[in-house]
Amino acid sequence: MFEKITEQSSLYNDLEKKSVLEILKEINSEDQKVALATQRAIPQIEKLVSQIVPRMKQGGRIFYLGAGTSGRLGVLDASEIPPTFGMEPSWVVGLIAGGDKALRNPVEKAEDDTEKGWEELKEHDVNELDTVIGIAASGTTPYVIGALHQARTHGILTGCITSNPDSPLAAEADVPIEMIVGPEYITGSSRMKSGTGQKMILNMITTSVMIQLGRVKGNKMVNMQLSNQKLVERGTRMLMEELGLPQDRAKDLLLQYGTVKKAVDGFSKQ
Asked: Quick one: how many helices (H) and strands (E) in the chain?
């Protein structure tokens, strides 16, 4: 029988008898293990990103699939790509078992449907330029495993993020990322260390991909969407630094072109 580290008993007990300070310190102590577990997974993360980039340069996309916390984190990461990097929402897509309703409320048995994930991928016309990444702390979620199996059968690059070694999910991934964080502070509560590690790895994947695709200049988000005043002010400062313009001129130029990159390109042609 497949052994799940994520279901092993917590290293701590009698939690209800502890003070708030004790609980916080113990959670923080466990959280410190997450960055180290993620660090050990860097070779696999690099392997996956290195295969994603050339596919996306040809028009490929990234699809995340997950259930519960894992699914929500995939949707979250995908939703942050358009405002941060100015990419269309179709470039990175998050799918969660049970659909958008499951973002706020659990959908009974949605994650147990082996066929649904692949059906949803087909609705997006998934193809061989795309990458499908399954996210499941347990490594046993049928919704995710079924989708990866079909994707791989159709010649699509597959990856996964899991907190258990040698899982059924990893067996369906061309590039399995195994982030072994150990038992959770509350036994089985993979929203904690596993969820934190998943978020870290998702950040690493999409950020490195977007940098490789030229969506960052220096260390600046030059393609970010100007969706609020804070971002307009940030973009204005970028243009002031890059072009040596006074604040009013930089802001006018930014609002005229819509992004820092377009503003710089437009200014250089004047």
From this structure: 10, 5
SS3 of residue 128 by DSSP:
coil
Q: Yes or no: say if 190 and 137 are a contact pair by the CB < 8 Å rule.
A: yes
Tokens of 207: 């950020």
Residue whose entry in the numeric block shows the structure tokens 């290195």? 50
d(CA 57, CA 60): 7
Cβ-proximal residues to 168 (8 Å cutoff; 6+ apart), any chain: 2, 139, 140, 145
Strand segments (E) across the chain: 62-66, 92-96, 131-135, 157-162, 175-178
Measured in whole angstroms, how far is the alpha carbon of residue 262 from the centre of its chain? 27
Active-site residue numbers?
80, 111
pLDDT digits (tens, 9 = 90+) for 63-74: 999 999 999 999
pTM over 0.90: yes
Instruction: Please report the sign of the dihedral spanned by the C-alpha atoms of residue 118, residue 123, residue 127, residue 129.
Output: negative
